[in-house]
Design brief:
Length: about 350
Amino acid sequence: MPDTLIDKPVSVAPWEVAPPTEFVSDGAPTIGAEPVPACPVCECERFAQHATGFDYELRSCRNTWRFVRCAACSHVWLNPRPAISTLGTIYPPHYYAYHYTEKVSPIALKAKNWLDGRKFAGLVRALGRSPRSFADIGCGDGRYLRFAERAGVPKDRDYGLELDEKVVAKLRAQGYVGVCERVEDCTAIPDRSLDLATMFHVIEHVDDPKAVVRRVSRWLAPGGVFAVETPNIESLDARLFGRTYWGGYHIPRHWNMFSPGTLRRLLEDAGLEVIGTRYQTGHSFWMYSMHHVTRYHGASRPAVSRMFDPFGGWPSLPALLAFTALDKVRAAAGAKTSSMLMLARRAD
Ligand SMILES: [Zn+2]
């Protein structure tokens, strides 16, 4: 065998560092990754490193992941990112979003339902008329489809998009239009037909946010409103923990991290007019940030980190209440928290 092959070094990207020891003792694999050379918002190919980190939440893989910042529009995206073939690894069956209702207490679920109902009512007020059609992209158990139904949307124009067949089958059994397709491939919704479309904490997970927003814009009826909720990379906690531990990164499942400026640009480039931005509490990002710092920075303190696990039950309740109160106060005082809800309207 030629020497060149024997001596060939294992290729290591310049940003790669050794993972925290737990990743190694867990036997987390190194998974396939693919480069994303151009900015998903403005297509510029010049960027600088913004942050690096690991899958601190699930330890699904031991890769060092890197976020880069666009030199032209300052958008931040994961580059490289997990190969499509690895999605089953980074979204394992125990991924919490699939089991949300089992993992939180009934009281927390009731509180969330009440808050989400208020959020939906606010969107209807921004629309300025009774919605006659609605789509929730990434609709989960269909909570928002039920709010829309109560607001007068007929079930045959109440669309829920979700990528899990079982979830979609349940929605269909309840009479809603369940669609098991990616937005970009979805043909179930007629153009210029939707009064209201919502996308809560989904845009940061998709590979081509531009194509997604353009498609939703096409579905909107004249005067229709699109509401997008996503982490805000310019928030206080994003700045404090942004080097690696910020909970909003959700490494490596968040592929695009927006600021109010880059999200506005994405919506305007799709022909929409931004009509308002509301800042929600980002308590789970604060908690995950604290969790990751106490667990992985220096000596691991698992007992302390459990007090900051958003799904940690009673031990983490004081932190949950404290960070929720903190962001409520900050948002009321005009601060831009780490969870932004931007509303955009289609003019004609
Ligand atoms: Zn850019």
